[in-house]
Automatic annotation (TrEMBL):
Signal peptide interval: 1-29
Organism of derivation: Streptomyces diacarni
Domain of life of the native organism: Bacteria
Keywords attached to this entry: Signal
Region: Disordered, residue numbers: 26-48
Annotated protein name in UniProt: Lipoprotein
Amino acid sequence: MRFKRAKVVGSAAALAVIAAAGSVTTVHATEDGASPADGSVGEKARAPEKIDSRVVDKDDSHIRIELKDKRQVSLTYAKDKGLVERHRPAEGGNWSSPKTIHKTKAESCQGIDARAHGDTVAVTADWGRYCSDGEPPQESVAAMGAGDLTEWDTASSKGSDGWPPAKIYDGGDRAEFVAKGPHSTTTLPWKKGSGFGDEVTVYEPIPARFVGSWRAEDGSHRVTFQQAAGGKPATGTIETLQGQRCLGSGVVTKKSADGVELGNFTVREGAETKNCPPEVFEHFYQVKTTESDMRLMELGKPPKPVATYERTGD
């Protein structure tokens, strides 16, 4: 996910772009589930703080919340402007001047999320064509304000499904937006005083018993699995050893404790041929124990083996 980080300062809403495109740090979990991002990024994992704000009013294009100290914060989708923020003191009185904390002319989605712990406020908002009719967003922003709320940090992205609501930590000094996919978790961290950091993506590992090279029993081809590492998910490479030349690779995901699936396969040399690759969504690889041969299974009730592989010394 590519994103832009910015800081909005003062009532004039001067937008200072801090990074044209946020860098993405990718790490991988071990098979036992341990990872440096299992609840925090680069910090000791702690339970998130309790959200102590309350929603005063809300509709598809607006939300107003009250903080623990009774101040109020208002966020609104403004047509052809973007996301506009205002706040007012606990004793009431005048609202601050409207401040555009994210500029866009895109069509807004339904709803804005805003929540706080103490004086730290976390916001998520989304835009996209037909988004208000239920289509996925095409543009999203995560925003954080703290203290007197005159400055806001934002991280905007395009081509993503947006961010779930943030979790706030350490009394409001730190927050994380965590997006969980089927086989990976991406965390966008924020710190008071320094703003948003780099995204960190943790890929689900495949069972260790699959890692390495396997030769088909009939000698026709070889399959090699590599564990998630170096900014990439687990991958599988298939190379034919006789007949039609086919060399390509794809992404491998865990199906079960003894099964993995291969998808997004790209042929780099030659052309597709039998089992290079197996038909997607119709087959999976199975290794029942660390001492077992590998089998290519065709889905069915029950699944049936269509090829057998022996581990090689490669």
